[in-house]
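Hello, quick one for you while I still have it in my head. A protein chain has come my way and I'm curious about its shape. Can you walk me through what the tokens say about the fold? No rush at all, and the record is pasted right below.
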Amino acid sequence: MEDIGNKLTGALASNEVKLKTIKNDKINRKNKKITEAVDSIDKSLRDIKASKKPTKASNLIKFNTEKQPAQLSSVYLKEITMSLEDRLALCGKQSSIPEIVEFVDIGENSCHKETQVPVDQPLFHATPSKVVFQNFDPFKKYEAMLSFRNRDKVARRLKVESLESPYFSVVPLKSGPPNGSRVAPGMEICYILQFKPEVKRDYFCQVVCVTDREKFVIPVEAKGSRGILDFQNEINFSECPVKFVSNHTLYVRNIGNAPARVIIEAEEPFSISPHQTTVMPQQAVQFEVSFYPQSIGKYEKYISILYDTGESVIVKALGSAEDVAVGSESDMLVMNNTYIGLASSQNVRLYN
């Protein structure tokens, strides 16, 4: 009996040791997972901090991070120097599909659930699809017309939400239907967008429009004082020797009414110096553009100019690399005999 008791005691002790070992293993594995998770979070935080470190360029100039689509220099100069009336008229001609930001249940707003308008396009066609005010004066009121045409085969509702900005407001036409009315197929409803600036700076807001099926936005932008550099459309190096640096001097003037702060980058094999500069109004700056081709052929690249306002301009850089026929009159050069400590010389004639 004693032997059986001893065996049972030993078995219980052994099981307790095994249970403790299993429990410790589970705790160790759990602690290891927690440690790995903490390390992963720390690494992510370090990566985020590293990504937020400013570059050398951003240390000197504060740039708008919302970079806008690049335009050719001539197109940008033409648009930015327009009068307010001409720019609003241009906005009316440049029509695009507005951005849909949210979908709503069409069944809750209308008994007509079927529609002939594609789901990726709003039920109403907006004109203009973007509004730009520029060359304005403070403490004056400016207006732009917004029209919305029903593209569906049944009557649809359109409501324009109130704007949160104190500088912009939208009101229906006095002669038109009230806001939120239903519009017959193919018919339009119009609103007046009012802009009241207090200082000559940049403003931005979005006009949110609600239909039976979706919400879409009309961006509204007001461009205040800014620097404008009169870059030419393209720089042509024509024919240049391969593996040889060719330079072109470029003079650019700030024709705007504010300092022009820019960062400039060129695609290889082109380069430009300086890469960053600030030009005061009516002042000029000199850029040195270099072309260093490594192989024979024609090159067409772009030079990008990024303003601190977020606007981006591109200039074409063209060049052709050729193998230049340079040689010598003789394939062999024989030096005259001379004594130790003295020198002997010969003339070598090269031709192009």
